[in-house]
Amino acid sequence: MTLASKITLIRVALIPVYMVFMYLSGGVFNGWMIAALSVFIVASLTDFIDGQVARRYHQVSDFGKFLDPLADKLLVITAMCIFCQWGSFHSAALVVVLMREFAVTGLRLIAVERGVVIAAAWSGKVKTFSTMVGLCVMMVFPQVPLLCQIVVAVIVVTTVYSGVEYFVRNGKCLLG
């Protein structure tokens, strides 16, 4: 197993730790929330680090290509589900995010079967960055409803935009 994949596995292993700290915080900015925020930031940074390691040291692997985006989705959807449970993240917004993730993943699977590799689009990177930063903001200010609503709106807009872009650019894969 490559170093890049091991770093990705660290991100996956941090998800239950993050969950425990979030639930211990009770949705209030306190020491547990700071611990949850710290774990979330470290886990988010591993997304950048594993990609750099994979490219720099030629450790790009099929396992890494599978696990890296899965780890990202698991991390952010875990946070969204917790905020949804607490009433800070509307369930309709969560459904939009899940629909986009399933749709783009399905598109990528069909494309691979047809010998086409769909590279990550710039809008997808913007979506991931704004989602991770937005969730951090929600952890720092969990009891500021207007700010949480703005963050959720930004997440939904960037999610929908990037999903539409993936299908506009690559929808031809569905036709063949």
Shape category = globular
Oligomer: single chain
Average predicted local confidence, pLDDT: 94
Give the helices and strands as they follow along the chain.
Answer: HHHHHH
Main pleated-sheet profile? none
Q: In whole angstroms, how far apart are the ends?
A: 35 Å
Structural class: mainly alpha
In words, what does this structure look like?
The chain is 81% helix and 0% strand. It is built from 6 helices and no strands. α1 packs antiparallel against α2 (31-56), α3 runs antiparallel to α4 (91-113) and α3 packs parallel to α5. The chain is globular, with a radius of gyration of 17 Å. The mean pLDDT is 94.
Key traits:
0% strand; mainly alpha; 176 residues
Task: Lay out the secondary structure.
Elements: H1 3-25, H2 31-56, H3 62-86, H4 91-113, H5 122-140, H6 145-170
Helix pairs in contact: 1-2, 1-3, 2-3, 2-5, 3-4, 3-5, 4-6, 5-6
Question: Nutshell version of this structure?
Answer:
This protein has 176 residues and is mainly alpha-helical. It has helices spanning 3-25, 31-56, 62-86, 91-113, 122-140, 145-170. The chain has 6 helices and no strands.
